[in-house]
Write a structure and sequence with these properties.
Layout lengths: L1 E2 L7 E2 L2 E5 L2 E5 L2 H5 L5 E4 L4 E5 L4 E5 L4 E5 L6 H12 L8 H21 L2 H4 L7 H4 L16 H5 L4 E2 L26 H8 L17 H6 L16 E5 H6 L6 H6 L5 H14 L11 E3 L6 E6 L4 E9 L4 E8 L3 E12 L4 E6 L2 E5 L4 E5 L3 E5 L7 E12 L5 E7 L13 E8 L4 E8 L3 E4 L6 E4 L16 H5 L5 H4 L11 H7 L3 H25 L10
Parallel strand pairs: 2-9, 10-11
Antiparallel strand pairs: 1-2, 3-4, 4-5, 6-7, 7-8, 12-13, 13-14, 14-15, 15-16, 15-17, 16-19, 17-18, 18-20, 19-20, 20-21, 21-22, 22-23, 23-24, 24-25
Helix pairs in contact: 14-15
């Protein structure tokens, strides 16, 4: 049985073959014979965690992540044989952790040497990944994941014979390549005119010295949102601000609210939902600050015509709520993010639904979010991708629905299908009326509209974006505390958070101290409220 790629819910039967250290799978044995392979993974390069009690194996090769389980009907002896077959392709069980540490130390030194070379030579330098330099294997007894969340434990019995393959491209539906459409937006010029900043006070911090390995190794299978991290791993934005970036391309909703055809209107809503992932293409080196309980964030954007407010409404479990409104739409969501580490990759799974209403037509759209995965977290060659199915429904009218597939990358292929997205709009009878596709970091094209066109393309990145956390112009403005709003914001606003402000200014050591102080104050406050029998009441949300 193989875990579905989205959203780690339910299992489906797949045929696996382990040959010369490579694990391949397809729907049936006949597909394997015909060479129709859905995925392949080099076991010798994978970190493996085995839960013998649930007969589950988690394989993380950095570029690919599999969750598989031996069928319950198989006898105990056969299960042992399966584990032994996998073990056969392990490295000699010397200290794998020590090997990884030494490889990372060598890699870090090469990065520093490359940084000291003249700038014109840097583009010729490529740092090796961990997979390039060592093949590690962790014994099952060392990495048994007993601390899985309740949700994951409860769906162990969700077996399914359904053969539809999530996150895999449909046959005959290839990605539309966007090559000729240019952006007309000049955000930097607009920002200068409006007085918003175009650069941050300091460059992004160097976190190559942080021992990510030891932090994550001690928390395999756990929810990382509850693990305190060094501030150097953060970007100077909170999660409340990160969510507001989903509104950067809100003009798509403005268009939708003035599109009479309900099926075309669904296309624009769908592309808006895709545009909210564009930031991720440049943001795989840092994580946002986890908001403290009661923290808020407000963002009034006259240039986009909307107002946004967000609040951290719960700490355990961590829940963030937000709401935005304009003349053309209302947007809200409440989300809980679970970050799971699987050995080489970190998966970010969001629970909760996104909601959008369009006043001109009385529409209320609702959809889930794709899974986000950061691969090769120990390497300087990290990569980030989204995968899974997103389904959009109009709760006030079942005339049409939309299914969007964020296609999971296949590591043995080229970059032609990188970050691929495919979408279809269907009527209530299930007939496809519109198709669109492209990539979430380059643009989306729809050739079934009356005028086939590129519906959306992300704004160009500003100069030296790599030196400023990979921030877009829009992101650079989110934490700006200008005089015209300083006296109007509540003291709980993220912009007043001292550790985040110090990090933005490049004062990492001071930021680390203030972060510890803030977290300790939050713990003390929670203990005091528990002692008094009180519960936190959100300020702006019910």
């Amino acid at each position: 049985m193989k875990k579905r790629k989205y959203p780690l819910q339910g299992w489906h039967k797949r045929y696996f073959v382990l040959d010369k250290g490579t694990l391949r799978y397809s729907k049936t044995q006949q597909d394997i014979v015909r060479g129709k392979v859905h995925g392949a993974l080099d076991v010798s390069l994978a970190v493996m965690s085995v839960n013998r009690k649930s007969k589950r194996i988690d394989l993380d090769a950095g570029h690919s992540l599999y969750h598989v389980k031996v069928c319950i009907c198989i006898t105990k002896n056969v299960i042992v044989v399966v584990f032994d077959i996998v073990n056969r392709y392990s490295c000699p069980l010397h200290s794998s952790l020590k090997s990884i540490h030494e490889s990372l130390a060598v890699e870090r030194e090469r990065v520093r040497q490359a940084w000291d070379t003249p700038s014109q030579d840097r583009k010729l330098y490529r740092t090796p990944s961990v997979a390039d330099s060592t093949a590690e294997y962790f014994d099952a007894s060392e990495l048994v994941c007993e601390n899985l969340s309740e949700n994951e434990t409860s769906d162990e019995s969700g077996l399914s014979d359904v053969t539809t393959s999530n996150s895999e491209p449909e046959e005959g539906h290839s990605m539309s390549t966007i090559t000729s459409v240019s952006s007309t937006n000049d955000l930097a010029s607009n920002a200068q005119v409006s007085g918003r900043r175009t650069v941050l006070p300091a460059h992004s911090t160097d976190n190559s010295h942080i021992g990510i390995l030891s932090i994550l190794y001690n928390n395999i299978g756990k929810d990382l949102s509850r693990v305190s991290m060094p501030v150097a791993l953060n970007e100077p934005l909170s999660l409340l601000q990160r969510v507001s970036e989903e509104l950067e391309y809100s003009e798509l909703l403005d268009i939708a609210n003035h599109t009479d055809d309900p099926f075309e209107r669904m296309v624009y809503v769908a592309v808006f939902s895709i545009s909210g992932y564009a930031w991720a293409s440049w943001r795989n080196r840092y994580k946002p600050f986890n908001p403290v309980l009661g923290e808020t964030y407000e963002n009034v954007r006259e240039d986009h015509g909307f107002r946004y407010i967000a609040e951290q409404v719960s700490h355990h479990p961590p829940l963030s709520a937000c709401h935005a409104e304009s003349d053309n739409f209302s947007f809200w969501q409440d989300q809980r993010w679970k970050n799971k580490f699987w050995g080489k990759s970190v998966e970010i799974v969001s629970s909760g639904m996104v909601n959008v209403t369009l006043p001109n037509y009385g529409d209320h759209y609702e959809w889930n979010k794709a899974v986000t995965c950061i691969h090769n977290v120990f390497s300087q060659q990290r990569s980030l991708e989204h995968y899974g199915d997103v389904v959009i429904r109009n709760l006030n009218n079942d005339e049409c629905t939309c299914k969007i597939t964020f296609v999971k990358s296949r590591y043995w292929g080229d970059d032609s299908n990188k970050n691929e997205v495919q979408g279809t709009v269907l009527d209530r009878a299930g007939r496809v009326l519109h198709r669109f596709g492209g990539s979430w970091h380059e643009g989306i094209f729809c050739d079934t509209l009356p005028n086939p066109q590129c519906i959306w393309k992300p704004n160009p990145q500003p100069d030296a974006y790599f030196d400023y956390y990979g921030f877009s112009q829009y992101a650079r403005e989110l934490n700006d505390l200008t005089p015209d709003i300083k006296d109007k914001l509540p003291p709980t606003d993220t912009r007043f958070r001292p550790d985040q402000r110090l990090l933005e200014k490049g004062k990492v050591e001071e930021a680390d101290k203030r972060k510890d102080e803030i977290e300790e104050k939050q713990r003390e406050r929670r203990k005091a409220m528990t002692k008094r029998g009180e519960e936190h009441v959100p300020r702006f949300f019910v």
